[in-house]
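task queued by scheduler; priority normal; single chain, no ligands, no partner chains; default sampling; output format set to structure tokens
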Amino acid sequence: MRDPRCLPGRDAAGRAEGITSLNDRLRSRFHFTVPSGWVNDPYGVTWFDGRYQLFFQFNPTAPQWTARMCWGQTESPDLLRWSAPRIALAPGPDLGCWSGAVVVDGGRPTIVYTSVSDDNWDRGRIMMATGDASFGAWIKEPAAVLEPPPGRDVLHFRDPYLWRTDDGWSMVVGAGLEPATGAVLGYTSSDLRNWEYRGVVCSRPADLTESVWTGSVWECPQLFELDGAWVLVVSVAHQGLTRHVAYSVGDFDGSTFTPVRWHRLLHGDSSYATTTFIDAAGRRCALSWSREDGPVEGREWAGALSAPLVLRRDGDRVLGAPHPDVDGLRTAISTEAGIVRLGSAPFRRGPVEAQSDVVLAGSLSPADELDVALLQGTGPVLTLALSGDTLTLRRPGRPDEQMPLGVAPDGGFELRLLLDAGIAEVFTPGGAAGVRIIPAAPIGELVLTVRQGQPTVERLVVYGMRATVGAASPGPRRPGSS
């Protein structure tokens, strides 16, 4: 029997009202999350008829993952003010409706998703559902359009990603092959229903570790063109655990992708399941799942999505920066400073609110070391340690995470820190990172401490950020409502 709490079209906001407050110190205010339940992989972000549609993995019944996942759905005019979440797809005879993609064919939206069953969660089937022009009512098609290919040792098969071609459609599906090899499998179709297997698009054994380790299973593959080159993005899994997001720039001849060099797309231990999409201005953008860091006992919700990013290519590197829509959430400047020649005494500035956008620029010589700490309560909840061309993220009780700082040839550096309750995202010219923090107080301060040398601060600005969670524009009607 289908779980009555997981029915298509049910508004998922009401259940948490009066139970979970938006004043919860861990709940994000401008990163998408749900009033109650569990959120993971985002996908299917589509700009259509003046609004964005967003889909995501959703368990509306509890703040924990389950194999019996639904497709959540929300919409927004600007990638930030999302409507109350609702359920687009729910399990029927299958165990769960897992990740996939959304395309628009002849003005009609189509969901392409992974269906899993009790006998084998790892080897999914690719199924479809069609919607109306309002993205409101979804009807599942009864038969699978794809099964794992025969004749290969395919241990994992899930997460389709599609794009239109001159001849019809192309699809890639994430996979894990025997022995211990992450892979992406390719398909083509002229009509979205009948698919021809084109073989392994790209693969890499788990025992190869040069530049970046890519594990034994590739989830949520994204294959797209960016600034004149092809890019393959995969979410790396291994031995049942989700790890990180990797990518390579390379060549794609329509059947095979040849990587140049693998890199981390997002540093830190929070970001996973990155999806890419085209925004209203035609830019290649990305959203990721922001994973929880620790237990969620006593809460009605778990999981959030990252800030939306705009991607650009620099040689064989892909870099992400906050989408311009994020800038529109800035409110008043809470603190700022001009040129500061740091000395032996710590340089302190505040207040820094739980929802803040911090911009810091200055200069570092190769021998300089500078700590930028966010203090809340009695101690730091996050420290950005700058040394040479490396930025190290430090949190109490957690392993250090490193990312490139991207110092300019003249020694100039800049960084941007988005803070939203328990989410911290760092952006530099060298990369991006996402981590979870445990806020100790609603208001904090920044403390800059010189560890070595004579670094200089040229600009420090801290903006407040407007809340969007709980303040979204009205959502779509439920199917069947008048």
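post-processing summary
- Helices lie at 324-327.
- The mean pLDDT is 91.
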